[in-house]
């Protein structure tokens, strides 16, 4: 395997990890506030659909992005009302959102475009184009640094850079701001926030809304950057993989970057080597494609050490007598 | 509410407004009237005790004051200003601080983070943190409230966690501090330190409201005391002009015996023989480090100690449900036969079948299923008994009848077996558990904290039943953090510290001072006077780890 191949695989890993990273950070905000969210998948799917549809109709990827965020936020609001205001079961609400998105996207897609649930292919400004960073071309031929900068770091859509910027930003928000302090507190012990005179519900709604926005960006990226349009069930379990990555990362932003990169890398390797030859044995493509899901199962089964979720996670806050 | 803070410096002549003035406060939760037409006046710069049985409405009243509940009617005045306290923020701005019985701290936050939470100076933390650090240092000096600001809460002892709660209130510039059952979780030395802090706060002109059910504390530290009973304020008196007996009578509305009437024990053959019992929990912490004792028929062995010194593990192990992953060694014999400590023969059902009853420490978690009806709870643990079953099905009618009889005999109120356990008061929940276990007539009864959060009337009743069981020739292991309870009930007292039994004493020939030393892990009691509480040099040792870094 030569250096260029490695760069290409890493480049592909970066593209593939981006939706995972965004969804993982989305889940991080929600779960650190104490609201479990297994509806990441559904929100991403809804966002992919609304983004692709609006981008196709208006011809603008940016309007598509806004629509994606809107679609995802709508579902977030449902989750918030169910689990914060009405103190419902967060898992059930999340499952419902996944089913709702799964059915609604195909139904609306068929009704509007008549292509069996797909949207038409996006072209030109309806997709996010790749950005070439300054000097990328002039230093491409420099050894090692050149290809790393020109091929790996440069040449992604704006949403990839946004996703990566979200990592330090999230760390900063969580650890250096008042909002972050309160967010972490409300996920650990909402009574401490309530008795300090801060509204638990308002904080949790804010967290759920941020979750919706990030899922919206993730879905829009899937439909208008990674692919060229919406396809039925195009999220393919990425929301659940993001959840596994979140647990793997122990609900921390920098670890989330690492965890989602691992998943992205596995997917990239599977794409690159559908039938991997190891001496006399050839690993079939089905196994390679299943790798990220296998890793998910391993992580969720607790083989990566104890992950302690936010203490108040999953529990609606009820003032006690 | 803007004038609230300015006014407190005003002259304290007779006409000065009280720190807190409540008029006609009423509050109902569904059919339960928690507060009925309550009026209360707390003068500035005093320590005011509020005392009453569990369910008397003390906590509800204070929660109303702190904006947790809205009263159905009535008026609240703080420093002479009428306020509508709709949320805790309003209460905080009016200068009210509250230290809850169950601390409202974020376990994995540092002390500093907990203190600024909700009282940050701006959207970024940096300035708030450095300001809080300075203020904290100042408060620590002023009131002996030393806590390392960078320690996380889970690393702190309960006593220190409580200091953080007090600091939180002071950081928010509280002039009126409400403490709800503050000494329930403290060692005697810690409680003593708390009282000195409270006296320091009072000297600075702060007003303190102390909610407690411990008469001794009321007598020791308060200036005035108000007594609540069944949602009503029945008396407000100067502490100097009353007595513990009078207060106890006011609380329950009749004379109570604070001492248990019991004949000397008449011990028979050993029922339980425990030898060199060791337990290492799943985290590798040694919880029991070689415990040995006997309990004979017709005898109550009291285990005293500050909670967290292995008593819980001892009860759980004997009861048949030690924490998963614990490593256990040693031997336990019951009626001469060895009990399995591990494996299938060591579970709680087998223990019950061998004649061991268990009143667990936490009735709400281990003793009852809170959402199930009382009649179901009365059968739990014994639901396989033949009289409760008909073939494959449970005989609900028989269980219900049995529950009705037990509730009658144990005076559980309300006498409604269909009510969920959650809807009974603490004392009546405990009576349900006690009825279930005692009525089975076990050879050995394990009891953990039988009267924690239980009102005086129920305490008296439960104590009587325990003594009756002893007198019928049964063995009783009583674990309690209440020294008074240990002293008045036990025939022998074992003191636990750090997983060991530090020594055995007889209740008639020991003192709370001596037991207090043993509870603090100090074995050499030979040279200390009997009557001493905790000696000054021990207090000093207590202080050491809190010096700021």
UniProtKB/TrEMBL annotation, chain A:
Listed InterPro entries: ABC_transp_permease
Subcellular location, record wording: Cell membrane
Keyword check for Nucleotidyltransferase: no
GO MF: transmembrane transporter activity
Keywords: Cell membrane, Membrane, Transmembrane, Transmembrane helix
Pfam families xref list: BPD_transp_2
Lineage: superkingdom: Bacteria
Transmembrane segments: 6-28, 40-57, 91-113, 153-174, 205-231, 251-270, 290-308
GO cellular component terms attached to this protein's record: plasma membrane
Lipid bilayer topology: Multi-pass membrane protein
Official protein name in the record: ABC transporter permease
Organism of origin: Paracoccus amoyensis
From TrEMBL, chain B:
An example Gene Ontology molecular-function term: ATP binding
Single GO cellular component term: plasma membrane
PROSITE patterns: ABC_TRANSPORTER_1, ABC_TRANSPORTER_2
SMART domains per record: AAA (SM00382)
Positions of region (Disordered): 526-549
Domain ABC transporter: 20-255, 272-523
Domain of life: Bacteria
Record has Signal as a keyword: no
Entry membrane topology: Peripheral membrane protein
Classification via Gene3D superfamilies: P-loop containing nucleotide triphosphate hydrolases
Cell location: Cell membrane
Keywords attached to this entry: ATP-binding, Cell membrane, Membrane, Nucleotide-binding, Repeat, Sugar transport, Translocase, Transport
Presence of the UniProt keyword Cell membrane in the record: yes
PANTHER family: CARBOHYDRATE TRANSPORT ATP-BINDING PROTEIN MG119-RELATED, GUANOSINE IMPORT ATP-BINDING PROTEIN NUPO
Family assignment from sequence similarity: Belongs to the ABC transporter superfamily.
Protein name, as recorded: ABC transporter ATP-binding protein
Native source species: Paracoccus amoyensis
């Amino acid at each position: 395997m030569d250096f260029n191949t490695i760069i290409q695989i890493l480049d592909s890993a970066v593209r593939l990890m981006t939706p995972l990273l965004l969804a993982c950070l989305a889940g991080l905000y929600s779960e650190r506030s104490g609201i479990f969210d297994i509806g990441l998948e559904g929100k991403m799917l809804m966002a992919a659909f609304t983004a692709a549809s609006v981008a196709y109709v208006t011809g603008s990827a940016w309007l598509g992005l806004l629509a994606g965020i809107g679609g995802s936020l709508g579902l977030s609001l449902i989750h918030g009302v169910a689990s914060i205001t009405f103190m419902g079961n967060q898992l059930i609400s999340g499952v419902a959102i996944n089913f709702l998105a799964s059915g609604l996207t195909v139904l609306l897609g068929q009704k509007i475009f008549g292509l069996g649930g797909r949207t038409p292919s996006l072209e030109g400004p309806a997709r996010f184009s790749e950005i070439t960073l300054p000097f990328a071309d002039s230093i491409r031929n420099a050894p090692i640094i050149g290809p790393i900068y020109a091929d790996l770091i440069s040449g992604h859509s704006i949403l990839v850079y946004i996703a990566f910027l979200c990592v330090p930003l999230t760390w900063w928000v969580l650890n250096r701001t008042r909002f972050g302090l309160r967010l972490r507190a409300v996920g650990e012990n909402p009574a401490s926030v309530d008795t300090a005179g801060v509204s638990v519900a308002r904080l949790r709604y804010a967290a759920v809304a941020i979750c919706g926005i990030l899922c919206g960006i993730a879905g829009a990226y899937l439909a208008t950057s990674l692919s060229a349009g919406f396809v039925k069930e195009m999220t393919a379990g990425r929301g659940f993989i993001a959840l596994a990555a979140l647990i793997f990362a122990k609900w921390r932003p920098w670890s989330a970057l690492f965890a989602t990169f691992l998943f992205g890398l596995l997917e990239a390797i599977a794409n690159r080597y559908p039938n991997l030859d190891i001496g006399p044995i050839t690993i079939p493509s089905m196994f390679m494609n299943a790798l990220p899901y296998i890793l998910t199962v391993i992580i969720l089964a607790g083989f990566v050490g104890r992950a302690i979720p936010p203490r108040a996670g999953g529990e609606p806050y009820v003032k006690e007598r | 509410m803007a004038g609230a803070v300015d006014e407190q410096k005003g002259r304290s002549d007779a006409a000065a407004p009280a720190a807190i003035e409540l008029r006609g406060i009423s509050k109902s939760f569904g059919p339960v009237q928690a507060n009925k037409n309550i009026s209360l006046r707390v003068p500035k710069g005093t320590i005011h005790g509020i005392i009453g049985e569990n369910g008397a409405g003390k906590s509800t009243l204070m929660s109303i004051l702190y904006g947790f509940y809205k009263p159905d009617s009535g008026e609240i005045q703080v420093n002479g200003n009428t306020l509508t306290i709709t949320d805790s923020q309003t209460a905080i701005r009016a200068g009210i601080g509250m230290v809850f019985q169950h601390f409202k701290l974020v376990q994995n936050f540092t002390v500093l983070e907990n203190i600024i939470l909700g009282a940050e100076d701006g959207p970024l933390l940096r300035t708030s943190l450095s300001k809080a650090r300075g203020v904290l240092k100042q408060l620590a000096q002023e009131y002996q409230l030393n806590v390392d600001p960078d320690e996380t809460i889970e690393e702190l002892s309960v006593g220190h966690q409580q200091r953080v709660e007090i600091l939180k209130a002071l950081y928010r510039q509280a002039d009126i501090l409400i403490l709800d059952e503050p000494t329930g979780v403290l060692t005697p030395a810690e409680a003593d330190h708390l009282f000195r802090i409270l006296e320091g706060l009072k000297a600075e002109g702060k007003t303190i409201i102390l909610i407690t059910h411990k008469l001794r504390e009321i007598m020791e530290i308060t200036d005035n005391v108000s007594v609540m009973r069944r949602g009503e304020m029945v008396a407000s008196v100067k502490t100097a002009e009353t007595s513990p007996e009078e207060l106890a009578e006011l609380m329950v509305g009749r004379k109570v015996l604070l001492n248990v009437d019991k004949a000397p024990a008449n011990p028979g053959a050993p029922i339980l023989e425990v030898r060199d019992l060791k337990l290492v929990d799943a985290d590798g912490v040694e919880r029991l480090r070689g415990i040995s004792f006997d309990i004979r028929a017709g005898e109550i062995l009291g285990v005293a100690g500050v909670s967290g010194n292995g008593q819980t593990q001892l009860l759980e192990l004997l009861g048949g449900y030690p924490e998963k992953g614990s490593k256990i060694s040693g031997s336990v014999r019951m009626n001469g036969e060895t009990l399995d400590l591990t494996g299938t023969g060591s579970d709680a059902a087998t223990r019950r079948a061998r004649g061991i009853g268990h009143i667990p420490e936490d009735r709400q978690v281990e003793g009852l299923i809170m959402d199930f009806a009382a009649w179901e709870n009365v059968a739990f643990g014994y639901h396989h008994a033949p009289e409760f079953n008909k073939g494959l099905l449970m005989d609900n009618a028989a269980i219900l009848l049995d529950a009705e009889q037990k509730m009658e005999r144990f005076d559980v109120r309300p006498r409604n077996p269909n009510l969920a356990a959650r809807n009974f008061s603490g004392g009546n929940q405990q009576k349900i558990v006690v009825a279930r276990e005692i009525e089975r007539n076990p050879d050995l009864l394990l009891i953990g904290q039988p009267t924690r959060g239980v009102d005086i009337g129920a305490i008296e009743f439960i104590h009587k039943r325990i003594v009756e069981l002893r007198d019928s020739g049964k063995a009783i292991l009583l674990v309690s953090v209440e020294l008074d309870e240990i002293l008045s009930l036990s025939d022998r007292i074992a003191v636990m510290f750090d997983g060991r039994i530090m020594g055995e004493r007889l209740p008639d020939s020991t003192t709370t001072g001596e037991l207090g030393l043993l509870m603090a892990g100090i074995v050499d009691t030979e040279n200390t006077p009997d009557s001493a509480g905790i000696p000054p040099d021990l207090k000093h040792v207590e202080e050491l780890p809190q010096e700021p870094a």
